[in-house]
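Notebook entry, structure prediction.
Reason for the run: the old model in the group folder had no record of what sequence produced it. Starting over properly, with the input documented here first.
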Amino acid sequence: RKLLVLLPMWCSFLLGTTLGAYLYTEMGVEALLVPSGFTFTIGAMYTLFRQTLKGFLKEIDRERLNTDMHKMQSTLERAQNLLREFNQ
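New structure, fully documented this time:
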């Protein structure tokens, strides 16, 4: 189970160090702009789409809860009908 977490982390670290070393030989110190630009882009996208994603996930939960409530209601109605038949 730990391997499922540690293996991707290790692979990402290895890829990042290799790519960073290559970019440093090509670009010098400006190579640091690549990971910082990537981090900025992902952070900006998260900030812009956070509310939209939050609303989307809430709607999915609401629909699932509504479906579960309908199933539960039909199950309770069936149980009540069986109890009525049993009592008669």
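Summary: DSSP finds two helices and no strands in the chain.
The old model has been moved to the deprecated folder.
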